[in-house]
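Posting for a labmate who doesn't have an account.
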Amino acid sequence: MSTLYVDNIYSKTGTSQAIEIDSSGRIFTPQRPALYIRKTGTTHTYGASPVQWNDVVFDTASAWNSSSYRYECPVAGLYWVNVSIHNTTNQLTSGWLRKSGSNYLFGFNSNLAGNTEGNLVISAIMECTASDYIDIIGDRSTAAGFFGTNSAMQVMFMG
């Protein structure tokens, strides 16, 4: 039996670090695609168009398309996606998490308690190809209130 001792693994060209293993055995992959984006302001076009996320906190793969409001998967594999939509009025809130324009997972929040705020959360693991994109269509039962500052979407490549 052989033993391999290594701290760092580099790309085949040797120009960039691909994997680091620390002394406790933790593995770090510096190029793992991930996105955290928020919604600011008080406007959203409801129905057929995606939620207009506009405040990129980080995008490690530069995969966010700000004109079509979607995350374009840079590599094939499993992606963890979490969406939180904040609504400021007492009404029904729903949304579709979509993969390449097809409905993937539906979320619904029945917030009719009267003058209270609601939060819709949709979370999924999605198997995607490098050509797939991820977005969300959000809607409410009326035009009152808004999806705004406390709304966010996170995407992380799992492998």
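Reply:
Got it, the structure tokens are right above this. The longest strand covers residues 77-87.
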